[in-house]
Amino acid sequence: MTQKNIDVMDIIVGKMAEGTTIADALKSVYHRRSVCIPCNESDFNISIMDLNLSNRTTNALLRGKINTLSEAISFCNGNKITDIATLGRLSGIELFETILNYCWNRMTDNEKIYFLIDTVKR
Fold this sequence. Notes:
Elements: H1 3-17, H2 22-29, H3 55-63, H4 69-78, H5 89-105, H6 109-121
Helix pairs in contact: 1-2, 1-6
């Protein structure tokens, strides 16, 4: 690992130690939002209703026939989130951050370490 990577890792871990969410910690380091979202297969079938999204975002996803976490991730991988009618940029950011935090909170400590190392390498 290079010194630059260690510095980035220190920033991410430091922000999280201060109580910052994983999404906000990553945003403080990366100016782009191309972060690989870690997700266990057991979480794929969770309803988007269980993600505690705002009503506006939830309703827009449901109208776009996106009902599960798996469908949301698949859609985001192949399309712009704003391709869903009435789902704007801020709702897309909310969705991304919610999915990232949801998946992060279900990872083991080892999975979190590997995810952070992989993210820094990217």
